[in-house]
Structures are given as C-alpha cells and as structure tokens.
Specification:
about 725 residues, TIM Barrel, Rossmann fold, 4 domains, 28 strands, about 30% helix, binds 1-deoxynojirimycin
Amino acid sequence: MKLSETQKKFVEDLLGKMTLEEKVGQLNQDSPSIVGGFDVPFEELIEMLTDGRISQEEFGKIMATAERDFHEDDIRAGMVGSVMGNDPVKANELQKIAVEETRLGIPLLMGFDVIHGLRSVFPIAIAEAGTFDDDLMERTAQMAAKESRAYGINWNFAPMLDVARDSRWGRVSEGPGEDPFLASKFARAKIKGLQNNNDSVDSYVAACTKHYVAYSACEAGRDYNTTSMSTSQLYNVYLPTFKAAMEEGACSAMASFNDLNGVPCTVNSYTLRDILKGEFGLEGFVVSDANGIRECVTHGIAEDDVDAGIMALNAGLDMDMGTRIFYNHIAQAVKDGKVSMETLDDAVRRILSVKVWLGLFENPYVPQEAIEAYKANLPKEHIALCEEAAEKSIVLLKNEDKLLPLNKTDKFTLVGELADRPDEVVGAWSLAWEKDDCVSIKAGLENANANFEYYPVCGPEGEINAEELKLAIESDSDIVVAVVGEYTSMSGEASSKADITLPGHQQEMLKKLVAAGKKVVAVLMNGRPLALGWEAEKLPAILEGWHLGIQMGTAITKVLFGEVNPSGKLSSTFSSVNGQEPMYYNHPNTGRPGSKSKFTSKYLDAPIEPCFPFGYGLSYTTFEYSDLKLTENKDEIIASFTLKNTGNVAGTEVAQLYMQDVTASLVRPVRELKNYERVQLNPGESKQLTLSLRKCDMGFYNNDAKYVCEDGLFRIYVGGNSKDTMEEEIRIKF
Ligand code: NOJ
C-alpha cells in the first residue's frame, strides 16, 4: 500500500476536520446484530456456522428471515468505521449513509472472511500451499478479490499466515503449513493477488494478515491456549510470513487471541508497535480479533473494559472488532489523558489511508453489473481455476503396484459417506458457497461415467451400516475407493483435537474391507494432517484430497483415472500416531538425535520418523535426481543437478532445495527449505536444473532479534521431499 503525496494530504486534511468522537468512530468495527430469535452479533453467528453449532442451511434461514440491526443511526452519527458482511445491496445502502449522510462523508470498510475463495471456493490453504505454485496462489487470490468486490467486500480477513507445527490445532487447515519459507512465498503471492490489481477498483481489496502473532504455537495445539517462546524462535519461525507480507505492502493485520510470553497480542506493544509497525513498516492498521479486547479482562491483564481499551490502543491496536469498547470509552480516555491525541490520530490516519488507497472516496458503491455478475452461474473461468487449484493440490501418498490410476472401464465399489457430501468439499471458513456449484466425489465420478456401485457404509461420525458394508464386500469388484476423513467442522477455529487419527469408525470399515481381500484406495478429505500409521502400512493406495473446494469431485476423478497426474506435495509433516505431535521436519538438532540406541530423543512406543515427511508426494511416473554440484558467486550458492522422468507418463515434480547450517552460535534446524521449482518432464526426458540459494537467506535471527549470517560449513540437500535427498557440503565466508 503506497499513497501519493496528494492522497497523504487528503488524509491529513480530513483528520484535521474530525471531532474527537468522529475519530473514535473510525476505530469501531460493527457487525449487524441479528435480532429476534437470534440475538447475537453477526460475527458470532459466523463463528457458530464455522464451528458447527449451526448448519449452513440454518445459517441461510437465519440470514434470509431474521431481522438485523445494521446500526444505521451509529453510521449516520459517524461512529462506525467498518462493517462486516457480504451482501452488496446492503453494503451499498450502508455506504450511502456513510457517504451522504455523515458530516464528513467517510466511506466504510466492508470486512469479511474470504480465506480460500468466496463463491468460487478453492482448496484450503494447507492444500494450496502444497502446490508449491506461487503463480496459482496469486491467481486464486486475485479471483477472490474480484468476487469480494462484487459482494460488497473491500477488506478480506486473509491471508491467514500462521506457520503451524502441531496438527492437533484445528486451524492448521487455514494456513500455509509448517515451513516459514514456503509460507512466506504464499504470503507474498496472496498479498499480490489480493492487493496489486489496483488499476481497476473492482479488482483489488485490502488484505488483513492474521493472526498476528504466534497463535499457531498455542501449547499442545489447543486453540486460544498460551504461547511462550524465545526471541529467536519468534523471529525465525512465526514472524517471517508477516514480514514478507509487509514487504509486499499488506494493508492491515489482525491481532491474535493468544498471549505471547504473558502479554496478549491484542495489547502487545512489542509485537504491534515495535515489530509490525516499526521494524516491518506496516503503514495500514491493526484490527483486534473478534472480542479480542474484552478477552484481555478474562486473560487477567486488564481490570475492566475501559482498562483493556486503553491498553490496546496505546499498544498499537487501531480497530476494535466487535466489542464497542473503543466506541464506548476512548473519547473519555483521551479527555482523561490516558490516551494521547497523537496516539488516536495515528490510528485514525492509518484507517483513513487504507480507505483512500482502496479508492472508496471516489467509488464507494458496488456497481449494479457487478452485483448481477454472480447471481446466476459461476463464470467458466472461475470454475476452471477452482479445478486447476484442486488438481494441483492433490497429493499421492502411496501407490503400491501401480494400483492407480484406475482403468476407467473397470468396475469398482465406492464407499464412505463423505463421497456423497457436496457440502463437505469446501472446508473451514467457506461462507458464501452455493450447493449447486459443489461437485462431490460421487458426482465427479458420475459426470465421468465411471463404472461403480456406491454404499455410504460409514462417515466421520456415527456407526457402520452393516448391511451396506456387507453389500460392499459382496460386490464383484475387488477395488474399493474409500472416501474417508473429517467433516469441515472438525478443523478450523475451535476445532482442536487430541486424537488426529481417522475419526469415528472409518478405520474399522477400512479394516473390514481389507480383511475381505479388497484392494482399498483411500481418498482422504480432511483439514489437518491425520496420523495415518495404520493406513500407510495396510492400504495399497492413498490420495490426500484435503478439502479441495467446489471442484473437488472433478479433480479427484481426473486423478483417479490418470487424466491428471498428481503433483501436489505435503506442506506439513504427517505423524503415524497422535503422540508424535508436534511433528515438523525443520526441528532443531539435538545432542542425541533419535536412533535405535536407547538414550536418544524418541518415544519408546512410536516411530522416530514421520509417516509422510514435509514436501512429500508421489506421481504416476518416477523421477530420478543425480549429479548434484555446488558453485558459489558473490550473492548465491547455485545447486546444479539433473532431474529425469524415469517412468512412462509425463509428470510434474517439485524439486526442493534444503540447507543445514552445520555449526552456528545457536542450535539450528536439521534442514530448512530454501528454494523450489515445479518442473514438467515428458517420459524419459531429463533436464539440467539449477536452484539458487541466496546468501542473504542463509542466516538466522539470534536472541537479540538480530539477523546474522555466520561463516562456516553448510550442507545443501536437493530432492523431491525433505527426507530423500542428495547432499553436498560447502564452506561459506559471508
Ligand atoms: C475470529 C477468527 O479468529 C478470525 O480468523 C476471523 O477473521 C474473525 N473471527 C472474523 O470472523
């Protein structure tokens, strides 16, 4: 976000005209309250939908029938800076009040959770990050921005940039996985996609990076739990995505619910003022998470609402989501000298700057053509992008004896309740999908005229239907495609789990099918890396399908029949058993790395190795890496190598480069991703490739928050995942 001198002057002039109350009004984000049977704020209703307390259908009914209070009088009085919602007609109505009926005519920011697409729902972020396709990540964000504007949204509560290492945490599904390098690339692509198309007002929105910061490090993966870590860990693991987003000009950030080393991030001036605004240069503003300011009282860091509000604003939190604490108490706090006018002005200036940058003063309304654009069917190019993203996100985890791809004419049996659930393909934080757009796996197979019989048998909850299981076992085909996994509501916010194996009786169903001699292909639909020890050992083929969005069924069908060769990789490590969590590849070295010998770092009753490592994913062809050579120039190390497609079909491989700083002043990770490239190869084709490692990326932050590059020995690894690699050593003097 860059403002011209004229725009900056416009902001200053406007600020100069504002009363104390009007300034406070800009810091207030309101949600429409649902009145009548459901007297809850809109964002609470959204949370109820997301965490499964109400179904999409119930949500739809409430939205269609309930009366809502949009606080028009407060908007008219200039006491509202932002509103939450995704209805363009309502957005225009409210915007008209703000623009035409308030003293200064300041338009509203219209915020909404558009995490992985709006009506065009793309794969959840953990899946999309596994494409290692920066260009795709940017294009999906661009489309989300365009749809958002048509729905009256100009501010997206995305991207979610929490690097997550513990799959018990339900929100792993919303973020780009466990690796800071890949996640930072994702961050850059998303900011570009959301914000950069700004030659036309209907194509860009303000991004809101979240949840700032270290929310994903919640102890034991339990959502909202306490977080505690060293400065070096904060800087090396949890801050890089936000730094990258700020370098791309992200407009805003959302403070996370957690405390960090005892200070809730909502009132943390070290992370907000010193790091985000100071060091990383955020020019836009920080919003609290929903109810975040009030929760500082529950945290026990503020005595009451007034105290919490003053602490938050002074710490650098500019906008209050949902509590009206700023609205109710900040004017008085300024009069009492507890918040300075300078602090208030700084917050208002930041919010106004984003509004100016968005062009809202010139173009506050959604044009009628845009409102009409998505009323009927989704445009073809939106469906095509949903399909491309879904196809590229699928990860082939196992394929014994080349069981996949299936022959299209051969008969097979399809089981699993999830196969026939179009409403379950979208994943957590999908709030504007239309059922008719969603292609379930069963529908995808039907559309392709596949030859199969379907028995639901069992889902993530509930019992096995014995009759259906019997029919599946007695069917004359020996191949069973079993769609198993998690409901959407089992990941996302407030969906941490202590047991991350396949939920319900699904594994029991698989065991019975295997015992009956069936060749079982598991197709997983899930929001988190599951502990798949049993499945990985006993099933001949496994496809990781995640929640792939509205084109899930089409994409899975094409992969099952080999029309698309899978190329996705894991953006997170998969454990074999629950107790291995948190499990991530780039862990610090220990003095006693886990091994067969007793006195080493491991569990007595769990494998040392993960079930599937970070970066892992097979293809219907095979790739061979050879001839790794390192050369060095002033700024980079260049790894050259040969990559060959040694199979019979064309395929795309993600070649990955990792580094280990062998000896350093702090214990460093056993390996760290530093570069990657998607490479397409025809059967038998080989390519000479290079992956560079910038010397400026070879350092790390120490416990004084200083980035240091230390001379010494580095090990460089190249391969198709974080474990199976070639390696060379190089000594570097910076
Ligand atoms: C709570 C969630 O933590 C956050 O991700 C979301 O953007 C807000 N609520 C608004 O819905």
